[in-house]
Amino acid sequence: MSDKPSFDVPDVDLASLTTSEREQLLQSEFLKQTAKMPWREMQTYYARGSVIVVSAELDLIAVAVQLGLDNSAQFAAWIEQGFIAPATDEQALVWYENDQTLWVTVAAPWILVQHKNLA
Length: 119
Prior knowledge:
The chain has helices spanning about 20-30, 45, 60-70, 70-80, 90-95; strands at about 35-40, 50-55, 85, 100-105, 110-115. By secondary structure, it is an alpha+beta fold. Strand 4 (about 100-105) and strand 5 form a beta hairpin.
């Protein structure tokens, strides 16, 4: 994983797009860069405080899109409900010891991770 994610975004004036069009563009880009990754490969990002845990109850891509749209009201609600939060030391240790694989997407400057049944 690179420190600077690259987006294959068409040369578009984002300000000229409707909210729906911006959502669709962001969703397409986040889908392209979402993958399963071992937690052990996330240690550098965790150490920087860049890892945000998304509850399995939420759609990881939808969360990334709302972050990309800077929807602070939605994020405040998710935080208040306990659906998103920074990764804790306890989570990091358990995931490390269990050699856990997580769903991951980059919503710069954040790395969003989600623990779901990956079977």
